[in-house]
Design the sequence.
């Protein structure tokens, strides 16, 4: 299993965040927001902010099929750890 985080932000912001947090998994920068748009998590105008991606979790098999998907309704909406572990 491989954990990858996709951040739809500018490279400078992501690099600063990675340097500060030392996360134990790979971070991919989606500066053009193409990935966020392709997965349906990007929204231009929302109640929380403008031009942001909703929090989301996708479990993708080796054959590229989506086995689990969670897309938050707001910036504070995340699935619980137990729910993700059950999906894995």
Sequence:
């Amino acid at each position: 299993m491989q954990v990858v985080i996709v951040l739809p932000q500018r490279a400078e912001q992501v690099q600063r965040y990675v340097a500060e947090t030392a996360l134990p998994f790979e971070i991919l920068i989606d500066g053009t927001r193409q990935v966020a748009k392709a997965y349906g998590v990007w929204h231009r105008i929302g109640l929380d902010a403008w031009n942001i991606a909703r929090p989301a979790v996708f479990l993708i098999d080796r054959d590229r099929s989506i086995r689990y998907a969670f897309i938050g309704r707001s910036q504070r909406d995340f699935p619980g750890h137990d729910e993700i572990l059950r999906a894995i």
